[in-house]
C-alpha cells in the first residue's frame, strides 16, 4: 500500500515550509488573505528505547530527550503549551492523552509519567515513545473549522465544515464538498468560497479560508499527499486590522510513499535542522521521511529484518505478523496471491488462526528466498499446538520469477528446520506454477519423501486456493485431485511446426553497423503488413477484447529474458508469427537482438524510437512497458498517443498514485 501515514510533527513541518512556496493548482494564484504564524514544534522522541530496558536506563533516556528538546526550543520555558503523543493515535483528547495550557515543568512531568509505558486506546494497546509539544493557542469555539483533502480514483475531494473540534460529529453527513477532477485546475477563490464557505458569516474569515484552502491544496499536490485532515483549523482575527492568522492545531496526513523519488528531497528539506531551528550552520538536508507503524503495531525483530532485506533488493519481500500463536502460516508468492489466500482462509472461518501476512515476488534470489523462509519457519516453530500447524506455500502462475530457484531457497530452509517442523507437527501444502514450475515442484515432492514432514504438492492443474480447504480439513484429498504429476520431460517439447518464425524469418534485417535510420527493410515492412491484412478480416478484436490469437506486441525496454519467454510460449502454442514484433530501447541506436525460436536462432529489431517501431510494425497494437516507476508515466503517455496502440501492459511497481490516476484519465 503506497499511502502511508506520517507523524503530526512531520506533517506540520511540511505544511509550514511549503504553504507559501508550492505552485498554485488554480488558474491564477490569489493574493493571500491570511497570515501564517511562526511554526513552533518540539519533538520528544524515545523510539530507540525498549520496554525491556532497566528502569534507570529508561529514566535517563527520557531526561536526555527532554533536555534536548529544551535546548533546541528555548521558547518551551516561556509560553503555555500543549503536549500529546505523536503516534498515529485518533481521538487523543477523549482518551486522556492531551495536556492543554500547561507550563514546561508540567509538560515534563506529564511526559515522564507516560513515556515508554503501555496505554490502551479503545481495544488497542501500545507503548508511548514519541510526543509533540507546541504552543497553546487560546481561541473561542466558534472559530474552529474542519478541512480535509482526500484522493479518489477520479480526482481529489475537499471537505469543509464550519464546526470543528473534538465534538465535530458525523463529517460525511455535514461536510460541504468540492471535487477537483484529475488534471483539472482548482477553481478560483470565489468559487471555493461559494462551494465550501457558505455557512461562514464573516467576510474576513471567508476570504482567509478561501485563500488558505488554495494554498493547502497546492501543498497537497506538490508534495504528493494522499490524505490531509486538519481539525480544528482556527482563524484568529486581530483588532489592528492586520490579516487574520490561520492556525492548524491538529493534523493527520498520509503521503504517497512511491513518490519518494519525486518528492523525497522536499520532504527532507522541510525537516532539516536548518529549516526547523533556523540555524545557518545546521545541516540543510533533513532525514528521509519516517513512516511509523500504526499505534500498537511496532515492528518485531523479524518484521524489521524482512523490511531491511526488502530495502536492499529489487524484489519484494513483505512480512506482517498477525498472531504469533496462530496455527496457519503462509509463504505466498505475489501480492495479489497473498490477498487471495488470506481471503480464502478467512472465508472458511479461520481468520483468527492466520498467523502472518506477506509475500515474496519480483524474482528474488535463492539466498533471499532462503532468508525469508527461514524467518517464517523460525517464528512458526517456536510454540506448539495440540492439533499441529499448517504451512501454505502458495502462488499463482509466475510471470518471470523462476519457481525452481525460489523453491531451492525454501527447500534449504525446510531442511534446516527439519527437527523443529517434526516437533511442531507441521504439515506443508504447496501450489505453484510459472517458469520452471515442474522442476521446482519435483524437488519439493522429493523433499517430502525424505524430510519426515507431510508435504502435498500441486501444480497449475489445481485451482490456486484449492489447497486451503484441504489444509484446514474442510475438503478431502479426492476433492482436490491427485496433485502434481511430473508428466513432461522438458518444458519446451519438440514441435511439428515450422522451425523458423513466420514474419521474422522473411525479414531483411539492415546491417546494425550502417547508419540507416530504419532497421527493417521495405520487404520486412511489407511482410508485416501482409500478415496484418491476412488476419484483419477474421481477427479484428472487439472493443472489449484487447487480445486475439494473432496479437502482436512491442516490448519497451531491453528485456531479453522476458522476450525469450514470450517466444518460447509462442513456439509451444504453435504460433506461426511471434507475438513480439520488435523491441524499443531509447538509450541506444537501432540494432538487432538474437533470440531462439524453438532450437533455431532468429533476430528481432530494436528501435530507439517508439514512433519508428510503430510505423514499421502497424500490426502491433499492444505495448509491454518495462519502463521503471520513475519514467513509466512519460513513456506510457507517449504510447497512448499513438492511434494504433490499443493496450499498454505496465510492468513497473511503485508508480506514484497521482501518475497512475492521470494515466487512467487519458
TrEMBL record:
<comment type="similarity">
    <text>In the C-terminal section; belongs to the succinate/malate CoA ligase alpha subunit family.</text>
</comment>
<keyword id="KW-0067">ATP-binding</keyword>
<dbReference type="GO" id="GO:0005829">
    <property type="term" value="C:cytosol"/>
</dbReference>
<dbReference type="GO" id="GO:0006085">
    <property type="term" value="P:acetyl-CoA biosynthetic process"/>
</dbReference>
<protein>
    <recommendedName>
        <fullName>ATP citrate synthase</fullName>
        <ecNumber>2.3.3.8</ecNumber>
    </recommendedName>
</protein>
<dbReference type="InterPro" id="IPR036291">
    <property type="entry name" value="NAD(P)-bd_dom_sf"/>
</dbReference>
<keyword id="KW-0443">Lipid metabolism</keyword>
<dbReference type="Pfam" id="PF02629">
    <property type="entry name" value="CoA_binding"/>
</dbReference>
<keyword id="KW-0444">Lipid biosynthesis</keyword>
<dbReference type="GO" id="GO:0005524">
    <property type="term" value="F:ATP binding"/>
</dbReference>
<dbReference type="InterPro" id="IPR003781">
    <property type="entry name" value="CoA-bd"/>
</dbReference>
<dbReference type="InterPro" id="IPR016102">
    <property type="entry name" value="Succinyl-CoA_synth-like"/>
</dbReference>
<dbReference type="GO" id="GO:0003878">
    <property type="term" value="F:ATP citrate synthase activity"/>
</dbReference>
<keyword id="KW-0963">Cytoplasm</keyword>
<feature type="domain" description="ATP-citrate synthase ATP-grasp">
    <location>
        <begin position="2"/>
        <end position="267"/>
    </location>
</feature>
<keyword id="KW-0456">Lyase</keyword>
<feature type="domain" description="CoA-binding">
    <location>
        <begin position="550"/>
        <end position="654"/>
    </location>
</feature>
<keyword id="KW-0547">Nucleotide-binding</keyword>
<dbReference type="GO" id="GO:0016829">
    <property type="term" value="F:lyase activity"/>
</dbReference>
<dbReference type="Pfam" id="PF24948">
    <property type="entry name" value="Citrate_synth_N"/>
</dbReference>
<dbReference type="InterPro" id="IPR002020">
    <property type="entry name" value="Citrate_synthase"/>
</dbReference>
<keyword id="KW-0012">Acyltransferase</keyword>
<keyword id="KW-0597">Phosphoprotein</keyword>
<dbReference type="InterPro" id="IPR032263">
    <property type="entry name" value="Citrate-bd"/>
</dbReference>
<dbReference type="InterPro" id="IPR056749">
    <property type="entry name" value="Citrate_synth_N"/>
</dbReference>
<dbReference type="GO" id="GO:0006633">
    <property type="term" value="P:fatty acid biosynthetic process"/>
</dbReference>
<keyword id="KW-0808">Transferase</keyword>
<dbReference type="Pfam" id="PF16114">
    <property type="entry name" value="Citrate_bind"/>
</dbReference>
<comment type="similarity">
    <text>In the N-terminal section; belongs to the succinate/malate CoA ligase beta subunit family.</text>
</comment>
<feature type="domain" description="ATP-citrate synthase citrate-binding">
    <location>
        <begin position="297"/>
        <end position="473"/>
    </location>
</feature>
Amino acid at each position: 500500500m503506497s499511502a502511508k501515514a506520517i507523524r503530526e510533527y512531520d506533517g506540520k513541518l511540511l505544511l509550514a515550509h511549503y504553504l507559501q512556496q508550492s505552485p498554485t493548482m488554480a488558474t491564477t494564484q490569489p493574493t493571500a488573505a491570511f497570515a501564517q504564524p511562526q511554526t513552533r514544534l518540539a519533538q520528544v522522541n524515545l523510539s530507540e528505547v525498549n520496554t525491556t530496558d532497566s528502569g534507570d536506563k529508561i529514566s535517563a533516556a527520557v531526561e536526555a530527550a527532554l533536555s534536548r528538546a529544551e535546548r533546541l526550543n528555548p521558547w518551551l520555558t516561556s509560553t503555555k503549551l500543549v503536549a500529546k503523543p505523536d503516534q498515529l493515535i485518533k481521538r487523543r483528547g477523549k482518551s486522556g492523552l492531551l495536556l492543554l495550557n500547561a507550563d514546561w515543568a508540567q509538560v515534563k512531568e506529564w511526559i515522564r509519567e507516560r513515556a515508554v509505558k503501555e496505554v490502551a486506546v479503545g481495544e488497542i494497546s501500545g507503548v508511548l515513545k514519541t510526543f509533540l509539544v507546541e504552543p497553546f493557542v487560546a481561541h473561542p469555539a466558534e472559530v474552529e473549522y474542519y478541512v480535509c483533502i482526500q484522493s479518489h480514483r477520479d480526482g481529489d475531494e475537499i471537505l469543509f465544515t464550519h464546526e470543528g473540534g473534538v465534538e465535530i460529529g458525523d463529517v460525511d453527513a455535514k461536510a460541504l464538498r468540492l471535487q477537483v477532477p484529475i488534471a483539472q485546475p482548482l477553481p478560483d477563490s470565489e468559487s471555493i468560497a461559494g462551494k465550501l464557505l457558505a455557512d461562514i458569516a464573516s467576510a474576513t474569515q471567508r476570504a482567509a479560508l478561501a485563500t488558505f484552502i488554495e494554498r493547502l491544496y497546492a501543498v497537497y499536490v506538490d508534495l504528493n499527499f494522499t490524505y490531509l485532515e486538519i481539525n480544528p483549523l482556527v482563524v484568529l482575527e486581530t483588532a489592528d486590522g492586520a490579516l487574520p492568522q490561520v492556525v492548524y492545531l491538529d493534523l493527520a496526513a498520509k503521503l504517497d510513499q512511491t513518490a519518494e523519488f519525486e518528492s523525497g528531497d522536499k520532504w527532507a528539506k522541510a525537516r532539516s535542522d536548518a529549516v526547523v531551528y533556523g540555524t545557518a550552520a545546521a545541516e540543510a538536508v533533513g532525514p528521509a521521511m519516517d513512516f511509523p507503524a500504526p499505534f500498537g503495531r511496532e515492528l518485531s525483530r523479524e518484521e524489521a529484518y524482512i523490511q531491511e532485506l526488502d530495502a536492499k533488493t529489487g524484489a519484494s519481500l513483505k512480512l506482517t505478523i498477525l498472531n504469533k500463536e496462530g496455527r496457519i502460516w503462509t509463504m505466498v508468492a505475489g501480492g495479489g496471491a497473498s490477498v487471495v489466500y488470506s481471503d480464502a482462509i478467512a472465508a472458511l472461518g479461520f481468520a483468527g488462526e492466520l498467523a502472518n501476512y506477506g509475500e515474496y515476488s519480483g524474482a528474488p534470489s535463492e539466498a533471499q528466498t532462503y532468508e525469508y523462509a527461514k524467518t517464517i519457519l523460525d517464528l512458526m516453530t517456536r510454540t506448539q499446538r495440540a492439533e499441529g500447524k499448517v504451512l501454505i506455500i502458495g502462488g499463482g502462475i509466475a510471470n518471470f520469477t523462476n519457481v525452481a530457484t525460489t523453491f531451492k531457497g525454501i527447500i534449504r530452509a525446510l531442511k534446516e528446520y527439519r527437527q523443529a517442523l517434526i516437533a511442531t507437527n507441521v504439515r506443508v501444502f504447496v501450489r505453484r506454477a510459472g517458469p520452471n514450475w515442474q522442476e521446482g515442484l519435483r524437488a519439493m515432492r522429493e523433499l517430502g519423501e525424505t524430510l519426515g514432514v507431510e508435504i502435498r504438492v500441486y501444480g497449475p492443474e489445481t485451482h490456486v486456493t484449492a489447497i486451503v480447504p484441504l489444509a484446514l480439513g474442510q475438503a478431502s484429498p479426492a476433492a482436490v485431485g491427485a496433485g502434481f504429476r511430473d508428466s513432461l520431460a522438458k518444458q519446451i517439447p519438440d514441435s511439428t511446426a515450422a522451425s523458423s518464425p513466420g514474419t521474422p524469418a522473411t525479414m531483411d534485417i539492415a546491417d546494425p553497423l550502417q547508419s540507416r535510420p530504419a532497421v527493417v527493410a521495405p520487404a520486412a515492412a511489407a511482410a508485416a503488413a501482409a500478415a496484418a491484412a491476412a488476419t484483419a478480416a477474421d481477427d479484428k478484436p472487439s472493443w472489449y477484447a484487447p487480445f486475439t490469437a494473432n496479437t502482436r506486441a512491442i516490448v519497451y525496454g531491453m528485456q531479453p529474458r522476458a522476450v525469450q519467454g514470450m517466444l518460447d510460449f509462442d513456439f509451444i502454442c504453435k504460433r506461426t508469427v511471434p507475438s513480439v514484433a520488435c523491441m524499443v530501447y531509447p538509450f541506444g541506436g537501432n540494432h538487432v537482438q538474437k533470440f531462439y525460436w524453438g532450437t533455431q536462432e532468429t533476430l528481432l529489431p530494436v528501435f530507439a524510437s517508439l514512433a519508428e517501431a510503430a510505423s514499421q510494425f502497424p500490426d502491433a497494437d499492444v505495448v509491454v512497458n518495462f519502463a521503471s516507476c520513475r519514467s513509466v508515466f512519460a513513456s506510457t503517455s507517449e504510447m497512448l498517443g499513438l492511434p494504433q496502440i490499443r493496450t499498454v501492459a505496465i510492468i513497473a511497481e511503485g508508480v506514484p498514485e497521482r501518475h497512475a490516476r492521470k494515466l487512467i484519465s487519458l
